[in-house]
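Much of what follows relies on a compact textual record of a protein's fold. A complete example follows; check for yourself that the lines match position by position.
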Amino acid sequence: QDGISIDMPAGPSEVLVIADKNADPGFVAADLLSQAEHGPDSQVVLLTDSQELIEKTKTEVEKQLMVLPRQDIAIKALSNSRLILFSSLEDCIDFSNLYAPEHLIINTCEPDILATRVINAGSVFLGSYSCESAGDYASGTNHTLPTNSFARSYSGVSTESFLKKISFQKITKEGIKSLGPAIEIMAEAESLIGHKNAVSIRLKSLEND
């Protein structure tokens, strides 16, 4: 096959919002609905340590949903979505890292601190005013992102995705003398004696010089 692959595993759009009691429930609901309207198989998730925020967000979702032109699509997506209460924001971020969302919004008092614990996410939006829509249209961040938990293994498409790399190495006499014994040990440990001999024959030739 000619050329290189630039595709990644991609699926329905996702957003996961981590919010605390100080978050505006209208903002949170709008962020959830902005992804729910993508398609019936989209998934939106809210993680919070505030039961009050969950209740207010539910009310806001119902209110905002009524004026969405793609209401039917959003309703189907919401049926597969979750609002989850945790005992702490630390637990929220731990769950998020397991879920590995395509889009992660951290809408808390100190989002920068919580952001230091992010391990798996396609793109992260920090603070009350960093809506995912900005990443889609205007803020300049990558919009081609891994979904379906593939953020555990993949990054978004970048210029490096369009590059093919070849590695070169040249080992000197001194280099093979230094590396050789370790190679021999590891090759023998794997019962790959041919690998070991490829080094041993060179080391022996150097001993005879």
Observations:
- The mean pLDDT is 90.
